[in-house]
């Protein structure tokens, strides 16, 4: 399965904020954690992650500092700020609304049937089948 | 496949990354750390260095794509973003719109003739031209209704001042208003450019960049225009024809107004040509101004102060404006996370030098300034001096702290954008309040 681009983009900031709310972290570890959380379905490229981190930093939701990794290399660590925590609460509320609405909608029997059917039930679909 | 040692391969890759010119050293450090972490994970899983390197860079993504992504975030890069990410069609797409608005601007500046003025009006016409420029930006940026209303309100207020304040033409308050009204109207232009995102520091800095490049384009167009007029008039003179004053009063104001939307279009659409020009100019002139100010400081002491106090204050207002511009446009191309270096010390020297010169000017002229009481000119000049002084003192302090601790530019940049509304408020205050207070003399 390939996630839609918009969906990946929309979920990126809440994922980063959530991971940083757990503890301070750095780019590579964040990518790894997202892969773990999504069973490998969400694999960000750097080209995606670092600009996002910089945007969140400019918005004051996270801060960064340069530290030294175990390997002795310079490494940039990110941590969430109070504004970031507030933004995360807002993200959670919004996502709860979205996922709640979808869950309720998909519990309607007719809809579930249509979604579960591998062949589209529209006229066009039948003719293809 | 190459069998270079891993470090050499990574160094090559890093050079390539920096070669795009959109990433700073710090960005490259961060990406390199990421790549190395990925490689060590992959080699731990049993891959060879070469294999791990290939997979690692593959995961980081196509370098062009990475560079493009960066271009949409950090400061220097936004500058180039106009070229980098706008589709080619859009770049030309606004061209006809710009020309239509240009023609409109050229026509509206002549409107005062309708109520009997022999020339375009020095107060009304610039307001109308800038309103058309704001309209062009509002149109091409597809701004929301609130922005349009704000721009319209600013225009109506400016026009009310320009048309209905009972000025003595060429009196002091008239001249002061003529100088401040365009600045007040520029608020409408900037708001239209920002698409109403007036609270965003990023959008404000974009508006500052736009302003700088727009001024540069206007200057270039003016140079071309001067050559064109000179050739035309000299040819006419050679044929024994005197270009009538009537003709000049039609052509020059309309040409200047018509150039405004076109310059705006050039800034946004064709910024490759003078891309980064404002920051380049500041890099060249910051050292030169610093030296000149140092020399002048020594000179003033040696010459024993200022003998003529009439225009000294205005001269120093202009100097401080130039210094503010030098500082602002350097910062506008500085990434928020850039470390301070020698150039920051140079900036501190420039600002401190300018402030010292200004202080000498103020102390040697202030007592004489107040001899004749407060005039509109003195209030306007001293007030502007104060506004600039606060801006520069804080900037000097923040820059010095930044240079000493080698911290990122973020704080200094934030101060620049946070202070911008003070200039807008000052211009509006002068335009609205000063003339009635001094009885429109």
Write a short abstract of this structure.
Chain A is globular and about 55 Å long. Chain A has 6 helices and 3 strands.
Taking the sheet with the most strands of chain A, its summary is: 3 strands, antiparallel
Q: Tell me the β content of chain B.
A: under 5%
- Provide the residue-averaged pLDDT of chain A: 80
- Assembly state (oligomeric): heterodimer
Quick one: how many beta strands of chain A?
Answer: 3
User: Looking at the structure, what is the overall shape of chain B?
Assistant: globular
| Biggest chain pair interface | A-B, 22 and 28 residues
Shape of chain A: globular
- Structural class, from helix and strand content of chain A? alpha+beta
Q: What structural class results from the helix and strand content of chain B? A: mainly alpha
The top-level CATH class of chain A is: Mainly Alpha
| Shape-level CATH architecture of chain A | Orthogonal Bundle
CATH topology of chain A: Arc Repressor Mutant, subunit A
User: Span between N and C termini of chain B?
Assistant: 82 Å
Taken as a percent bin, the fraction of beta residues of chain A is: 5-15%
- What's the number of structural domains of chain A? 1
Task: Report the end-to-end length of chain A measured between terminal Cα atoms.
Answer: 23 Å
Query: Low-confidence segments of chain A, ≥5 residues, pLDDT <50?
Result: 112-129
């Amino acid at each position: 399965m390939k996630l839609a681009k918009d969906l990946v983009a929309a979920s990126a900031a809440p994922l980063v904020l959530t991971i940083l709310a757990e503890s301070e972290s750095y780019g590579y570890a964040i990518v790894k954690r997202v892969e773990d959380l999504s069973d490998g379905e969400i694999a960000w490229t750097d080209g995606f992650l670092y600009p996002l981190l910089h945007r969140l930093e400019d918005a004051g939701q996270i801060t960064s500092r340069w530290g030294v990794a175990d390997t002795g290399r310079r490494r940039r660590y990110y941590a969430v700020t109070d504004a970031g925590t507030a933004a995360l609460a807002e993200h959670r509320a919004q996502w709860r609304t979205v996922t709640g609405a979808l869950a309720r909608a998909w519990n309607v029997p007719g809809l579930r049937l249509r979604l579960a059917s591998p062949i589209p039930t529209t006229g066009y679909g039948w003719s293809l089948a | 496949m190459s069998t270079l040692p891993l470090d050499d391969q990574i160094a090559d890759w890093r050079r390539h990354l920096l070669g795009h010119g959109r990433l700073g050293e710090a960005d490259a450090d961060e990406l390199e750390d990421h790549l190395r972490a990925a490689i060590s994970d992959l080699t731990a899983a049993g891959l060879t260095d070469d294999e791990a390197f290939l997979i690692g860079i593959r995961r980081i993504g196509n370098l062009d794509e990475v560079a493009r992504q960066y271009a949409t975030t950090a400061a220097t890069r936004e500058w180039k973003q106009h070229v980098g990410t706008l589709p080619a069609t859009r770049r030309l797409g606004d061209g006809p719109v710009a020309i239509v608005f240009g023609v409109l601007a050229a026509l509206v500046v002549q409107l005062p003739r309708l109520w009997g003025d022999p020339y375009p009006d020095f107060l009304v016409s610039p307001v109308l031209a800038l309103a058309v420029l704001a309209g062009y930006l509002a149109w091409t940026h597809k701004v929301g209704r609130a922005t349009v209303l704000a721009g319209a309100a600013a225009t109506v207020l400016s026009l009310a001042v320009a048309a209905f304040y009972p000025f003595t033409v060429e009196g002091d308050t008239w001249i002061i208003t003529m100088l401040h009204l365009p600045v007040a109207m520029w608020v409408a232009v900037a708001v239209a450019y920002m698409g109403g995102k007036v609270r965003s520091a990023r959008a404000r800095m974009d508006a500052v960049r736009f302003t700088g490049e727009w001024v540069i384009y206007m200057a270039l167009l003016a140079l071309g225009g001067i050559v064109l007029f000179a050739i035309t008039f000299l040819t006419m003179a050679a044929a024994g024809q005197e270009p009538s004053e009537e003709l000049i009063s039609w052509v020059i104001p309309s040409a200047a107004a018509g150039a405004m939307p076109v310059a705006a279009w050039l800034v946004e659409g064709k910024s490759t040509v003078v891309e980064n020009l404002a920051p380049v100019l500041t890099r060249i002139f910051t050292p030169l101004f610093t030296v000149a100010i140092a020399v002048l400081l020594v000179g003033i002491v040696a010459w024993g102060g200022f003998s003529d106090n009439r225009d000294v204050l205005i001269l120093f207002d202009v100097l401080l404006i130039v210094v503010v511009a030098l500082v602002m446009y350097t910062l506008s191309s500085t990434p928020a996370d850039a470390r301070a270096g020698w150039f920051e010390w140079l900036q501190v020297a420039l600002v401190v030098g300018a402030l010292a010169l200004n202080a000498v000017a103020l102390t040697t002229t202030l007592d004489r300034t107040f001899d004749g009481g407060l005039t509109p000119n003195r209030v306007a000049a001293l007030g502007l001096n104060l506004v600039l002084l606060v801006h520069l003192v804080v900037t000097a302090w923040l820059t010095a702290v930044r240079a000493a601790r080698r911290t990122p530019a973020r704080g200094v940049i934030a101060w620049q954008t946070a202070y911008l509304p003070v200039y807008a408020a000052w211009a509006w205050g002068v335009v609205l309040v000063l003339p009635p207070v001094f009885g429109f003399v």
